[in-house]
Amino acid sequence: MHTHILPKDIPDFAKKFGYEGFIRLHHHREGWARMMQGDKFFREIHENCWDPKVRIEEYARFNTQVQVVCTIPVMFSYWAQPQDGLEISRFLNDHIAEVVAQYPKNYVGLGTLPMQDVELAIQELERLKTECHMPGIQIGSNINNINLGDEKLFPVFEACEKLDMAILVHPWEMMGQQHMGKYWLPWLVGMPAETARAIASLIFSGVMEKLPKLRFCFAHAGGSFIPTIGRLEHGFHCRPDLVAIDNPVNPREYLGKFWVDSATHDPELLEYILKKAGSKKVCLGTDYPFPLGDLEIGTFIEQMNLEPAVIEDMFHQSTLDWLKLDKKQFV
Ligand code: CO
Fold first, then answer.
1. Residue 241 Cα to ligand 1 middle (Å)
2. Which of 8, 195, 264, 308 could be a cystine partner for 50, CB 3.0 to 4.6 Å?
């Protein structure tokens, strides 16, 4: 789980909607494209970002058959006009649904929603379920700086629980990124903090408590949330007047209730995550095809000398449980 995909060609949304900020793809040579945001270069991508066959071959080299795909967070476009956000979401979701329909044994899709408008988000969520047959969605770690625990967003989570849709929370629009342009800090420091912000907000606000059947999964092993659980718990006990105002339950109680991916790049950290969350809640996640991802898909895990049952959980069972899928559909 946790890989990113894009259509090879993206409409010129800036031209269509009459304002800038949308991603365009400039295919400047065979197999390579520049993602451009207006005139600004965002990222160079390779055909493994859009070609489903190339991706299947690259995965096969690491004995991996199935990829859970979702869009690249820069495509969320939560800042856009709601109707435009809906149109972009539908375009991206239809593309992912097509890839899955074409290669059902190799792909599972997660949709994206125009989270800037709760009604439109729920409308698209219903379409994802009934028309696109997707088992879940991917959302950002904050929505235009509104935290996920904010009551404005609650109806979307309620609808996800009702429709039995799993949720991947991916860090994006990293806090403080305007103050840390150098050294790739928004990715290296901001992303883990963003994910912790999302988990803490969903716990302390009571969303996880009120909607216990929701199946959340958090990218990059939950960022800095699990490694700092001692601090979070201590803060909960020593300043309940600040922390425990909306939910009286100790944050530690939620370890093992949500899923995380394995993208730690560090066997000792993964061991710790396994200890805290349990192998049933840790999924093989790569962040493929981007350089910060685990591009030697799971190799470091195979070298860790773990029990076969733990490996089995991480390599497929936890993801199947999270998405409520049956292994048989991929055989
Ligand atoms: Co990612």
1. 35
2. 8
